[in-house]
Amino acid sequence: MLVRLLYCSRAVDASEGAIEAILREGREHNQASGITGILCYGDGIFLQCIEGGRMQVNELYATIQKDARHKDVALLHYEEVLERRFGGWSMGQVNISKLNHSTLLKYSEKPELDPYSVSGKVSLSLLEDLAATAAICGRG
């Protein structure tokens, strides 16, 4: 049974080294666990969609909730799926600093990443748009 989970969180340490460590560890874990997805990071906020087996995705989300590097973890969307949308990446990464602000404005009131102020469906649409427009900088 495949599921898709979308969450957001705030980075406790937004330094480049701390973010790189999270990405590196995530890619290693995801590949070993059969989890795929896409991550958008900007202004101290993570927006991530993860896909895979129900137990693997649920266990990963529980780990993220307990991870001291994340705060304000919020579940935005969860569903059973027939197929993966982000199956090509253990964790595709969007470089928010290179985005055209009009892309963000398409989905929110301000040209900034703020999944806390929009619905989970809107955040998922944003990630799908970013993947379709090749805004992925790390395909891990």
Brief descriptors of the model:
single chain, 140 residues, alpha+beta, Alpha-Beta Plaits, six-stranded mixed beta sheet, 6 strands, 35% helix, globular
What's the gist of this structure?
The protein contains four helices and six strands, in the order βαββαββααβ. By secondary structure, the protein is of the alpha+beta class.
| Overall mean confidence score, pLDDT | 87
Structural class: alpha+beta
Cα radius of gyration in angstroms? 14 Å
User: How many individual helices?
Assistant: 4
Please report the first level of CATH classification, the CATH class.
Alpha Beta
Secondary-structure element order, N to C: EHEEHEEHHE
Spatial sequence of strands, sheet with the most strands: 4-1-3-2-5-6
Low-pLDDT residue spans: none
**Count of discrete domains:** 1
Morphology call: globular
CATH architecture descriptor text: 2-Layer Sandwich
What is the CATH topology classification name? Alpha-Beta Plaits
Largest sheet: 6 strands, mixed
- SS elements, strand count: 6
